[in-house]
Every structure is written in structure tokens, then in C-alpha cells.
């Protein structure tokens, strides 16, 4: 999670909502990383999870991320949760809960939906306070500025 927080700080410094993500292979090597970049790229899919999964897929040369773990500082939204299922990730680890848009238990639970063909293991609220504090700080400064 600390590596994902490093990515989140890069987003913060760039004026993006500070969410960061990394993808680990089965040997716990980082094979993809990313942070929110929607503003810079003008891309609505520029969420940290998507950026990190694209990088991991490029590293592996396949869209299937079986055996891999996604670590992200904020609970994924519906788009990212759907991508996690589609990528066949084995594990999802996330930090802060997203009560406004979370799709891994808060508002929806896409990744555990039994109607879907894949359900990753989920570990929630890892370093949640630290992940949430960075988001709070970002939005406090945004409102003041």
C-alpha cells in the first residue's frame, strides 16, 4: 500500500485526485503502477486502477492478470470494479472506503457479485486512515484555492 500511496502523491502533485495503484505479480514484483490522470489526459477512464492494469497487461503481454494483486488507495468505483473482474485479478487490496462511489461493498459490491464469472479475494481498509487523509487534504486545499 505504501507504493500505491507514492503513486497517489504523484497525482496530488499534478493536481489530480490523489489515488494511486500498483499491480503485483504472483512473486510480488510490481508489474504495473499508476495514478489518476483524467485531467492531464482528458480521459474519463484515467483512474489509477485502469492505468495500473494497462501497464501490467503491457508488461505481461496479455489482458489476463490471473495470479496478480491490485493494490489501490481508494475503494474502486463501478468502472474499475468491473475491469478488475474482467482482468481476472486474483486479489484486490484497497485503502480508504469510498462512501459516495465505492463498488466493493460501500454502495455496490460488483467484485463479489455471484452472477459474474470471476470474484477476486478482497482485503479492505489497509492503511485506510493514511489513504483517506491524503484525499481529505487534497479536497480541503481545493476548496480554499
From TrEMBL:
Gene3D superfamilies: Cytidine Deaminase, domain 2 (3.40.140.10)
An annotated Gene Ontology molecular function: tRNA-specific adenosine-34 deaminase activity
Catalysed reaction equations from the record: adenosine(34) in tRNA + H2O + H(+) = inosine(34) in tRNA + NH4(+)
Catalytic residues as annotated in Swiss-Prot or TrEMBL: 49 (proton donor)
Signal sequence segment: none
Subunit structure: Homodimer.
Name of this protein: tRNA-specific adenosine deaminase
Higher taxonomy: Bacteria, Bacillati, Actinomycetota, Actinomycetes, Streptosporangiales
